[in-house]
């Protein structure tokens, strides 16, 4: 039965000529709303199509972006090439430095060997203790491990060649420092020995003259009794110069009982010399004299039987035979 379509629009759908009709009805308002909605969708689609499909792309903008990106790539490539060149130059410089360092290490080793040989000869010539100054052994060192470096004892170097060279340089530096210290100590000892030898009495105290009395027990010329003679007597012309037989400081210059006019000189290291029976004294107390300086004139003062020099040598206050020091 037909539906009432006076108040609305009707849409009749049938399946074939004999099929049952299907009625779809909708109001005028609904129809208008559907038409407006459809037209809105069409308008929106047309706008979007015009924006994304129909409008031509911005070629200038794309070209500008492409050129900027290409410029960045070229700049990065140039920077990378510069880094590669610097790396190559650094590597070549390191290789040259390694070769130079290797030659220097060889030179240092040869010098240290010569230094060891020289040190051994110096020890033998100086007559020093081989155990105290041994140039054949390495320096004796030690100490607790440095925990701040994680027990590594230093910074680990990369590269076998560089590590080996650094190790050799460190060892050579230690050997050189040790040898330098030993040689400085040897020099000090030799210098002190030379000073002591220079300060040690040695020489003949006057020009000419002869040994008229020896050191030790003798018959006293005044009493005729046996007595101990603390020095030696050297006879010479009266007024002849009396010379110091070693450098030192004058500690006595004047009359002294038994010696007449006496000059006493302190030479250091426990040595003193006395020159007695002088006619005149030409130095004063506190004066420094060198070996061979004139300090008095041969005389016959005090307990003396004729012009001569009474020479005494004392070591740590004890009189010793001056004949071992007389260079004649």
UniProtKB/TrEMBL annotation:
The chain crosses the membrane at residues 31-54. SUPFAM superfamilies: Duplicated hybrid motif (SSF51261). Residues 136-157 are annotated as: Disordered. Residues 63-97 form a coiled coil. The keyword Transmembrane helix applies. InterPro entries: Cell_wall_metabolism_enzyme, Dup_hybrid_motif, M23ase_b-sheet_dom. It comes from the Bacteria. Keywords: Coiled coil, Membrane, Transmembrane, Transmembrane helix. Residues 228-322 form the M23ase beta-sheet core domain. This is Peptidoglycan DD-metalloendopeptidase family protein.
């Amino acid at each position: 039965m037909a539906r009432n379509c006076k108040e609305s629009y009707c849409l009749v759908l049938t399946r074939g000529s004999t099929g049952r009709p299907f009625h779809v009805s909708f109001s005028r308002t609904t129809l208008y709303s559907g038409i407006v909605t459809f037209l809105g969708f069409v308008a929106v689609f047309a706008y979007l199509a015009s924006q994304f499909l129909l409008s031509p792309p911005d070629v200038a903008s794309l070209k500008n972006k492409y050129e900027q990106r290409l410029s960045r790539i070229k700049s990065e490539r140039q920077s990378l090439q510069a880094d590669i060149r610097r790396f190559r130059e650094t590597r070549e410089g390191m290789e040259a430095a390694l070769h130079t360092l290797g030659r220097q290490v060889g030179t240092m080793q040869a010098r240290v060997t010569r230094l060891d040989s020289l040190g051994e000869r110096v020890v033998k010539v100086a007559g020093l203790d081989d155990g105290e100054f041994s140039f054949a052994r390495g320096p004796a060192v030690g100490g607790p491990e440095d925990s701040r470096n994680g027990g590594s004892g230093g910074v680990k170097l990369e590269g076998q060649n560089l590590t080996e060279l650094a190790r050799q340089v460190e060892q050579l530096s230690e050997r050189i420092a040790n040898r330098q210290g030993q040689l400085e100590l040897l020099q000090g000892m030799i210098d002190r020995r030379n000073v002591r030898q220079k300060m040690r009495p040695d020489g003949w105290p006057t020009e000419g003259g002869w040994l008229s009395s020896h050191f030790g027990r003798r018959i006293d010329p005044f009493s005729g009794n046996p007595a101990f003679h603390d020095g030696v007597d050297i006879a010479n012309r009266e007024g002849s110069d009396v010379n110091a037989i070693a450098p030192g400081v004058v500690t006595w210059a004047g009359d002294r009982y038994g010696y007449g006019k006496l000059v006493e000189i302190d030479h250091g290291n426990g040595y003193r010399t006395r020159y007695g029976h002088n006619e005149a004294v030409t130095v004063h107390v506190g004066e420094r004299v060198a070996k061979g300086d004139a300090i008095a004139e041969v005389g016959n003062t005090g307990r003396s039987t004729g012009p001569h020099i009474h020479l005494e040598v004392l070591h740590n206050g004890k009189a010793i035979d001056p004949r071992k020091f007389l260079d004649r």
